[in-house]
Amino acid sequence: MFSASTLFITGTDTGVGKSLFSAILALSFFNQGKKVCISKPIQTGSPKDTDLLAELTGNKIPNFNTYSFSLPAAPVVSAKQENKEISIEKIISDIKSLEEKYDCVIVEGIGGIAVPITEIRDQRSEIRENSHLPSPISHLYLVADLIKDLNYPVVIVASPLLGTLNHSVLTIEFAKQKRLNILGFVISGYNEVSSDPVIKTSPDVISEITKIKCLMKVPMVKKMSFESINLISKSIAFEEINVLT
Which end of the chain is more exposed for a tag (fewer CB within 10 A), N or C? Predict the structure, then answer.
């Protein structure tokens, strides 16, 4: 079983199964008798991921959210659309406060690892605004930057379908570039009986290229329900991982 007390779940894209895997993992911890929660610090669009997480976990796993926006887009875009600002300090503070109350804290990111959350202004911006210097310097703060600042080990969720090799390798290599602690990747929606060579070979090919392990192949779920997700959480043999946190 996963033994990490804190984990960040990201993906190669949106809609690849992050919430599904987060729910399975949370229920696995819960069924071990651990006090576990899920943090979805930022969500955009409708239906809300927090509602889906509540449904998939049978409302047995508390889930928390700091920012929720209506427009289904990257947070930096959605927040601007509503004339709101995203505070990274508040996001991190909200997540860190959960560590004091729960044995396991699972953080689910938004979209992929390079999705921009907000725009960070350089500390010299105020000086520049009050001088004749060029306009303030700023940079985009990405999901990868949040993982880095939290100092959480990360699991990358990928699709089993055509195109996953490119998406997965690029995501993993970007995570390496950011010097993140990568536990491994997970293939979501994997069909064990499929004869499709793309589905059959993708986990091994991704591992061969990146030298990162495939931790789990989440089976295809025909009906998304608490009963089916809980059954998977009890039957899946997770690879043993020891993480010092």
Answer: C
